[in-house]
Amino acid sequence: DADVTQTPRNRITKTGKRIMLECSQTKGHDRMYWYRQDPGLGLRLIYYSFDVKDINKGEISDGYSVSRQAQAKFSLSLESAIPNQTALYFCATSDWTDNYGYTFGSGTRLTVV
Amino acid sequence: KQEVTQIPAALSVPEGENLVLNCSFTDSAIYNLQWFRQDPGKGLTSLLLIQSSQREQTSGRLNASLDKSSGRSTLYIAASQPGDSATYLCALNFGNEKLTFGTGTRLTIIP
Fold first, then answer.
1. Given an 8 Å threshold on Cβ–Cβ distance, is A99 in contact with B51?
2. Could you tell me the pLDDT band of residue A72, with boundaries at 50, 70 and 90?
């Protein structure tokens, strides 16, 4: 099993729908992150969490919300999806046990039509 | 604003050649630097992690160096193979909980 697992791998949804992307990790890391990747814009941080009670906005949090259900689970929600949220979404973890190197999931390709 | 530049943006080399990818940054106050590879539409695979106090790291055919004084990191790939074809990203951790990614180098190894 992968260290960081994202579900679904691909999703097509309609404008205005609520959608949740899920992330789970087996590394035992405290820190978890959500990034989105767009062609020409690179990876941008949406939200990050240091533990279940500590959640912080990243540089592009508008239109998104997150939930840290447990140390191992961090979900990202789009409350009302819009087409410009079409992107590749990545979950990542890091921790002092790995010298704060990052481990990324395989990504969720989201298309909003 | 921290800027991270990777040159060249794209590189094609024949199989078997050794090659160097470059990553330049303007702010030397880094915590660590990480090299990733990304296959089209896929996730990021970590290749090497260099801490601020280190000069280089090696893994198999890969060697990454870090020179903070000149604001530069290089990724050396020895004896390139077609399976090395991917986009390579450097990412800097400035200790502010946000990785700053480079612009990427798209590498093609020609069989």
1. yes
2. very high
Residues of A in contact with B53 (CB under 8 A): none
Average pLDDT of the segment spanning B40-50: 93
Hey, are the CB atoms on B93 and A100 less than 8 Å from each other? yes
User: Using CA atoms, how far apart are residues B8 and B106, in angstroms rounded to an integer?
Assistant: 8
Instruction: Judge whether A46 and A34 are in contact, CB under 8 Å.
Output: yes
CA distance A14 to A105: 24
A74 CB within 8 Å of a chain B CB: no
In the numeric block, the tokens 């087996």 are attached to A26
* pLDDT recorded at residue A1: 66
Nearest to B36 by CA among B3, B8, B62: B62
The answer to whether A33 and A45 have CB atoms below 8 angstroms apart is yes
pLDDT tens-digit series, residues A22-70: 999 999 999 999 999 998 888 999 999 999 999 999 999 999 999 999 9
Distance (Å, rounded) from C-alpha B24 to C-alpha B66? 10
Q: Which two tokens stand for residue B103?
A: 């612009």
Cβ atoms within 10 Å, residue A36: 23
A-B C-beta contacts closer than 8 Å: 46
DSSP B4-39: EEEE-SEEEEETT--EEEEEEES----SEEEEEEE-
